[in-house]
Amino acid sequence: MWNGRQPAAPFFAPGYRRYLATTVPPLTGAEQEQRIIDFQAAFPELHFTIEDLVAEGDRVVSLR
């Protein structure tokens, strides 16, 4: 979705939450999708490479 500029919604589970900081409420899937769209508009050359991906239970963390 980031590098291919594809819609993000199909990648999010129904209860998806994005935690940015402990002091702000988590983002829903729709809010995170809008955040991605905004980033892509602001930084059209943006490209990510995932160096490591860890999943346990219902939690996933990536190192970019």
Average the pLDDT over all residues and give the rounded result.
89
Secondary structure: number of strands: 2
The major β-sheet equals: 2 strands, antiparallel
Low-confidence stretches: none
Number of helices: 1
Q: What's the gyration radius in Å?
A: 12 Å
Portion of residues within helices: 10-25%
- Beta percentage is 15-25%
Q: What structural class results from the helix and strand content?
A: alpha+beta
| Structural domains: how many | 1
Beginning-to-end CA distance, first to last residue: 15 Å
Comma- or semicolon-separated keywords:
64 residues; alpha+beta; two-stranded antiparallel sheet; 1 helix; globular
Description of the structure:
It is a single chain. The chain has 64 residues and is an alpha+beta fold. It has one domain. The chain has one helix spanning 29-42; strands at 52-56, 59-63. The chain has a two-stranded antiparallel ribbon with strand order 1-2. The protein is globular.
